[in-house]
Known about the structure:
With 138 residues, this protein is of the alpha+beta class. It has one domain. It contains 3 helices and 5 strands; from the N terminus they run E-H-E-E-H-E-E-H. The strands form 2 sheets. It has a 3-stranded antiparallel sheet, covered by helices on one side. It has a two-stranded antiparallel ribbon with strand order 4-5. The two termini are 24 Å apart.
Amino acid sequence: MATDRVEIGCTPCEEDCAQTGSKDYDYTKLNKIECKAYIAALRKVYGDEPEGASLYTKSNPHDFGTYYEVAVRYDTNNEAATTYAWKLEAGLAKWADAGMHAPVLYGAHGGPVITPEDQWFYADTLKRLEGDKDGVQA
């Protein structure tokens, strides 16, 4: 099986995110939380991965430390997996696109504030997802 991957990012493109190398907070912890939430958001919008595709958190070295982002690994010989992967490349603009609150709040909130995982989705979204687990590889 020939595989490839598409790297999507750590949060929706118009949202704040943990800054690699920050000395003000544990950016690795916050970055991994954001990736877990982003996988849940992508699945909410684009659906679960078809056979031959898998969303995961990928580590990347950087001058200021390791950072993490969401990627999708896919079987290049599987048309459904390939189509799904390339749809995901567009990502999301806002957490609200998936009916979610930001998993981490920055700035005016007095520093990073982690939103509890059971409060990520808006109440009406949770009703539609009853019993759904995100199955994230952290």
